């Protein structure tokens, strides 16, 4: 920009006062100020537009890079899947015999199943629950809260 100090502005003001005259000087000063404001607004809008264009170009470049990366990733995944499918197909065609379950294995699995089912379905006798303090009845959530609330069951219901 133009480097204008206070002394230079004073000289310009004195020259303008002599050339233009004291009657027209306020109008000329207002017009010069409005023109200066318009010029500043125009420069700011141009700067903003240039910065938007630069950001737009950067975003387009970034989008292109991301698309290229996604395309290479997609190609890698497709190649990997195709290779794995080919490996599975080759293994299937090689007719590798699968190990067959023996009767001992089947009997062991049946015993384990029966043992686990018995453990899941067996009930604990009531006399054992009473002796060891186990649960005798199923309580709802509200009943458990009321049972363990400080003050015991002496409090009335809220309904």
UniProtKB/TrEMBL annotation:
Keywords: Cell inner membrane, Cell membrane, Membrane, Protein transport, Translocation, Transmembrane, Transmembrane helix, Transport. Coiled coil: none annotated. It comes from the Bacteria. It is found in: Cell membrane; Membrane. It is a single-pass membrane protein. Pfam families: TatA_B_E (PF02416). NCBIfam families: tatB. Belongs to the TatB family. The Tat system comprises two distinct complexes: a TatABC complex, containing multiple copies of TatA, TatB and TatC subunits, and a separate TatA complex, containing only TatA subunits. Substrates initially bind to the TatABC complex, which probably triggers association of the separate TatA complex to form the active translocon. Part of the twin-arginine translocation (Tat) system that transports large folded proteins containing a characteristic twin-arginine motif in their signal peptide across membranes. Together with TatC, TatB is part of a receptor directly interacting with Tat signal peptides. TatB may form an oligomeric binding site that transiently accommodates folded Tat precursor proteins before their translocation. This is Sec-independent protein translocase protein TatB.
């Amino acid at each position: 920009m133009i480097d204008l100090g206070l002394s230079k502005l004073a000289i310009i003001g004195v020259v303008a006062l002599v050339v233009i005259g004291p009657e027209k000087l306020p109008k000329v000063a207002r017009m010069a100020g409005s023109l200066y404001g318009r010029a500043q607004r125009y420069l700011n809008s141009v700067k903003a537009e240039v910065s938007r264009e630069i950001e737009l170009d950067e975003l387009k470049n970034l989008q292109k890079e991301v698309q290229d990366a996604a395309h290479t990733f997609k190609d890698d995944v497709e190649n990997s899947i195709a290779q794995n499918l080919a490996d599975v197909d080759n293994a299937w065609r090689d007719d590798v015999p699968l190990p067959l379950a023996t009767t001992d294995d089947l009997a062991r699995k049946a015993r384990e199943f029966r043992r686990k089912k018995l453990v899941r379905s067996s009930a604990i006798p009531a006399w054992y629950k009473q002796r060891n303090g186990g649960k005798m009845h199923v309580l709802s959530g509200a009943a458990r809260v009321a049972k363990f609330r400080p003050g015991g069951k002496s409090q009335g219901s809220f309904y």
